[in-house]
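Quarterly update from the structural biology core.
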Amino acid sequence: MGNSFVKEDKNYSDDEIISRFKSNDFDCIQVLIDKYMPLVINYAKSFNVSPIETEELIAEGIVSVFTAVKSYDPEKSKFSTFVSLCIKRAMLDQIKTSTRAKRIPSDMITDIDSVEIEDFDSPEEILIDKENLEEFKSNISSFLSKTELSVLKLYLEGNTYSDISDKLNISLKSVDNALSRVRNKLKDK
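Predicted structure, tokenized:
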């Protein structure tokens, strides 16, 4: 069989070629690819894309002929109709995928060479920051009420208003009011 079948392909129908392919005569797929290549090229050119994209569409069309052979059911349609639909869909999917990638806004793309890595703080700066934080905490506790301080602490830990309400056994409105007072007091300081 092998290549001799490819040379004698003119006398076989699509269904006969597909039947041979499904019987493990894989060389015969070339017959269908050659037969439908003009259709693949015609569809690819009809999308009016760049030459490189046209080549990609042709490659996608060839793959879709192979896929069509594997999934073809002769009881549902003619192969020529089915393969035509498979080729179109594969090409449209390829175009959608490539245009989706092109829509990334240019301001979101950064050249890797222009990225600067910030230096980490020195141990001295870390120590100073910790001391400043402790001083800030003690200052806050001097002008916030016990409830405001508790609400703020829980809120900064990532608790929701509902969680804070449950943990402190106060109403949601009390949580909201306490955080509003904290914001106002911190603005004044």
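The chain is about 70% helix and 0% strand.
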